[in-house]
Specification:
The protein has about 260 residues and is of the alpha/beta class. The protein contains 9 helices and 13 strands. It has a 5-stranded parallel sheet, with helices on both faces. A 5-stranded mixed sheet has the order 7-8-11-9-10, with helices on both faces. Strand 12 and strand 13 form a beta hairpin. The longest helix has 14 residues. The protein starts with a strand and ends in a 10-residue tail after the last strand. Bound molecules: S-adenosyl-L-homocysteine (SAH). S-adenosyl-L-homocysteine (SAH) binds next to helix 6, strand 9 and strand 11.
């Protein structure tokens, strides 16, 4: 029997956000591999084993899953959101590229999921309605100087910017430094959206402006479960009586701004 590896996106949290394709891939697996809190989201099934590992061990986890698949099992390796966005899919590809030839012959499927920036955007309107980019603020896998260069380029080019991994206990200052840098290139009134634990218990959404970000940070408990969307000069806020504002970036941009 030849093995199979599915790299499965679980979406932002709520089981209703899991695609039917992901559901099928999980149900068909003999064994699940993943970071413990993500595995906890998958209902237990008879005759299916679980292999939880630490969040920092992505390459080792990918290798273990590939070994098990090469031995003939049906394996699913899970990621929050989409596995291709700052997650397991690239780690699996890195291991396949570096690993034994038999891993290249394996049947591997990548099953997409709803990534955090789409889940956050959907809560507030259409902030990603025009050109946007996504950046991870984690400097675990790249130098901070590169983060700064990309932030500056994105702000100058007029992209709306989705910031993944804004903060962790090991990286306490990076978010503040990123906001300071963006203030040099963007007007104070640019809308900023904080989406915490979207579609999960403890969800918080808040909207502020670039000049007021510090005040909000403590308020929304900015942490590893938060995604931040920094608007562009074109991003607009529609105030609504008794309701959360709508934030959107119009589809048409008439001028080339600095
Ligand atoms: N593969 C994931 C991203 C992994 S990086 C995806 O596609 O969503 C982890 C970062 O994703 C977190 O630090 C946070 O910025 C963001 N994130 C993941 N789930 C989230 C959620 N439910 N609400 C808000 N942000 C989330």
């Amino acid at each position: 029997m030849s093995g199979h590896l599915a790299v499965v996106g679980l979406g932002p949290g709520d089981a209703r956000c899991l695609t039917p394709e992901a559901h099928e891939a999980l149900a068909a697996a003999d064994a699940l591999y993943g970071y413990g809190p993500y595995l906890d989201r998958v209902p237990a099934r008879a005759n299916q084993t679980r292999h939880a590992s630490d969040n920092r061990e992505e390459r080792a986890r990918a290798a273990a899953a590939l070994r098990a698949a090469a031995a003939g099992a049906r394996i699913a390796i899970v990621s929050g959101g989409d596995p291709g966005v700052f997650a397991m899919a690239a780690a699996v590809c890195e291991e396949i590229e570096a690993g034994p030839d038999e891993w290249r012959a394996l049947d591997v499927a990548f099953v997409p999921g709803i990534t955090a920036m789409l889940a956050v955007a959907a809560r507030i309107g259409a902030p990603l309605g025009h050109d946007f980019c996504a950046l991870s603020l984690s400097d675990n896998l790249k130098p901070w100087a590169l983060v700064e260069r990309r932030l500056e380029a994105a702000a100058r080019a007029g992209f709306v910017i989705a910031l993944y991994n804004p903060l962790s206990r090991a990286r306490p200052w990076q978010f503040g430094a990123a906001i300071e840098l963006l203030r040099r290139y963007l007007p104070p009134a640019v809308p900023v959206i904080f989406g915490r634990a979207v579609t999960r218990a403890g969800e918080r959404i808040s909207v502020t402006t670039l000049d007021r970000v510090d005040a909000v940070q403590t308020d929304v408990q900015l942490d590893m479960a938060t995604l931040v969307i920094v608007g562009s000069r074109d991003t607009r806020v529609i105030a609504r009586p008794g309701r959360q504002p709508l934030v959107y970036t119009p589809r048409a941009v008439a001028e080339v701004s600095a």
